Amino acid sequence: MNLILLGAPGSGKGTQAKKLQAKYKVLHISTGDMFRKTVEEKSALAEKLKNIMEKGKLVPDELVIDIVSKRLKADDCRQGFMLDGFPRTLAQGRALSGILNGNGIDFVLYIELSENEVVKRLSGRRLCSACKTGYHVVFQPPGKENICDKCGGSLFQRDDDKEDIIKHRLKVYNEETAPLIDYYLESGILRKVSGNGNIDKVFEQLCSVINDKH
Fold first, then answer.
1. What percent helix, strand, coil does the chain show, rounded to 5?
2. Has 144 been annotated as catalytic?
3. What CATH number labels 2-122+163-213?
């Protein structure tokens, strides 16, 4: 089973991907995770990626396609995978078709969410500086303000979760990524799911789409 998760920043793709991975034993490939891991390294590429991500811009197509292409050739992808964060542009979508060499995508699962809700969700996220546990000031606050429940570390807000950067990210998404909705709709593999409601409700909708196929 090959899947793509599509949706605006903050629509819950990462959270749902982990739940889908646990239920269906499908490999979760997150370009965001790959980029953040690279940023932690000391290299020219790491510095370049850091500057791009902190400004809320998209990583250039050529670079992303190269990274993902190499990842999809790994042995653990042969039994299927779930792409989270790729493709993000029409060029990447078309490149993916070539990378897969006819081994198509079963579904593109598109999680719809309003821009106001996206800003609310992302601007409230906090991360522990020590153990990297995630929190949310509204939906999952720590017991003590700005203090991690698990290790006592201080919480911080990622630069790309600040409101001005979020709004820029949404502008970029609408210009660069939203066209993929029509692209996959025309191919007949797009399935829309509402991102409103709690995590379990969204998950049930996603499972219903997948179970219809399998």
1. 50, 20, 30
2. no
3. 3.40.50.300
